[in-house]
Design a protein that fits this description.
By secondary structure, this protein is of the alpha/beta class. Helix content is 40%, strand content 22%. The chain folds into 2 domains: 266 residues, Aldehyde Dehydrogenase, Chain A, domain 1 (3-Layer(aba) Sandwich), CATH 3.40.605.10; 190 residues, 3-Layer(aba) Sandwich (Aldehyde Dehydrogenase, Chain A, domain 2). α2 packs antiparallel against α5. Bound molecules: nicotinamide-adenine-dinucleotide.
């Protein structure tokens, strides 16, 4: 049993005032592997006060001082890479290759933020005005369990680049991963109070951050429902917000698509991060005249995406993070069948060869209509819905007929035509034919997928306030 019994305030690991112990699980076995002692409102206020004290000095740091801090944080995390990979596998259940990517991403975001800051004009002349980009103050950073280290690192990197200070409220279900990140950051030796970390429940620590008048901004990644409640309480004190929320992203298969090339793209986009991904391409729009051919191709491709023990290098899909998440995915699989969708692969229950862990069968429904619940709600598991369409215009209409607008994907042989479809989809990012992610491009969603953008210059803009001085 691993016990995480401290939080990080004012440059030191301290015992929280909160006394509640929260179980941590290995999702591949369902065993309790540790416990975290949760902070409370009083701990949150102490962390906010420390960040507030540290702000005036942090706000005055030069660009080169901030670049140095970013480099130190990245280097410190690099030294704990292997420990972080192990914690991601043990506590989150991500397959080995994904876990390594997650640890590397958390390290790389510091370099990316440094690149952005280097090219960023913190002072600009606009006509007769001298415009300076001012840091905001204390920022509350709230992260989800599906990529907790990467979100902590990505948000902290922008706080440092902007000259603000922060209180981090990580996912309470990811405390072992958070602990490694916190220990690594401590070794980077930043001034006390610049960042503080309080483990705790969302409706306790997260809620205090969202309403506390000394917090200037909230950067939140998580569900749309929680994002809405944060937005409401942030309004009272006019907090700036960046909200990265849910998705129900379309994958448009054009009628000229080469299925052999498209299927790995479709399955990687749908089943990446074991389906627990906000950007998952879960609505697969397929031309009706090629539906049978597509169904056969995707069934054949499924063999490369086995679900099971995350430590087995052949495994592509790990367990769901919790019993609750497993139950939720099962209930959507039941609902899809009840709604009249046709089960092409998978279904309820655990995959063969797995027992106690929260494993789900990779599941594909076909003959799905876009008004079915499985096409409208975010399932957050390896469950995909094939929706037939007739024309390109109809494909775009279905793609946009959703509350969400985080991400989209297009697969087609004629790239100009695929690009024209991409241009008409309302989403923060569109990927054509499996192109690699550009990490400095803005990331975020339209509609209920959130407010604002992260990464690159758009991400840094969101942590700065322009101030114009004339005369
Ligand atoms: P969640 O909203 O339940 O929790 C996210 C974080 O918010 C956790 O740290 C939680 O403790 C905290 N929280 C909960 N209630 C709160 C409250 N009232 N006030 C303040 N904070 C509160 O989400 P989750 O289940 O951890 O993560 C899954 C969700 O995250 C999915 O909907 C997914 O789409 C979304 N997500 C979005 C992105 C993105 O970048 N758009 C990325 C990953 C995950």
């Amino acid at each position: 049993m691993k016990i995480v019994d401290s939080i990080y305030i004012d440059g030191a690991f301290v015992a929280p005032h909160g006394a509640e112990m929260f179980d941590l699980h290995n999702p591949a076995t369902a065993d309790v592997i540790g416990q975290v002692r949760l902070g409370d409102e009083e701990d949150t206020r102490a962390a906010i006060a420390a960040a507030k004290r540290a702000f005036p000095e942090m706000a005055r740091t030069s660009k080169s001082q901030r670049l140095e801090m970013l480099a130190r944080l990245g280097e410190a995390l690099t030294t704990r890479r292997e420990d972080l990979i192990e914690a991601v596998i043990e506590e989150y259940g991500a397959p080995i290759s994904r876990s390594a990517w997650m640890a590397d991403h958390a390290i790389n975001v510091f370099r990316l933020a440094a690149q952005t800051l280097e090219g960023y004009e913190l002072e600009r002349q606009i006509g007769t005005a001298r415009v300076t980009m001012e840091p905001l103050g204390v920022v509350g950073l709230i992260t989800p369990w599906n990529a907790n280290p990467g979100f902590i690192a990505g948000k902290l990197a922008m706080v440092i680049a902007s000259g603000s200070t922060c209180v981090i409220k990580p996912s309470e279900m990811s405390a072992l991963q958070t602990q490694i990140v916190a220990e690594a950051f401590h070794e980077a030796g930043l001034p006390a109070g610049v960042y503080n970390i309080v483990n705790g429940r969302g409706d306790v620590v997260g809620a205090e951050l969202s309403r506390n008048p000394d917090v200037a901004k909230i950067s939140f990644t998580g569900s749309t429902a929680t994002g809405r409640s944060i937005l409401r309480s942030a309004a009272d004190t006019f907090k700036r917000v960046t909200l990265e929320l849910g998705g129900k992203s379309p994958m448009v298969i054009m009628d000229d698509a080469d299925f052999e090339a498209a299927i790995p793209f479709v399955l990687n986009s749908g089943f990446g991060n074991s389906g627990q991904a906000c950007i998952a391409g879960t609505r697969i729009l397929v031309p009706s005249r090629r539906l049978g051919e597509f169904e056969a191709a995707i069934q054949a491709g499924l063999g490369a995406f086995p679900s099971g023990d995350p430590r087995d290098p052949a495994i592509a899909i790990g367990p769901m993070v919790s019993r609750r998440q497993w139950d939720r995915v099962q209930s959507y699989i039941r609902q899809g069948q009840a709604e009249g969708a046709r089960l092409l692969a998978g279904g309820e229950g655990r995959p063969d060869g797995t027992s106690d862990g929260w494993f789900v069968k990779p599941t594909i429904f076909t003959d799905v209509r876009n008004d079915m619940v499985i096409a409208r709600e975010e399932i957050f598991g390896p469950v995909l819905a094939i929706i037939p369409y007739e024309t390109d215009a109809q494909a775009v209409e279905i793609a946009n007929d959703t509350d969400y607008g985080l991400h989209a994907y297009v697969a087609g042989a004629d790239e100009d035509r695929a690009r024209r479809v991409a241009e008409r989809i309302v989403a923060g990012r569109v990927i054509i034919n499996g192109a690699p992610m550009e990490m400095s491009a803005p990331f975020g969603g339209f509609k209920h997928s959130g407010i604002g953008r992260e990464y690159g210059t758009f991400g840094l803009d969101a942590y700065l306030e322009p101030k114009a001085v004339m005369g």
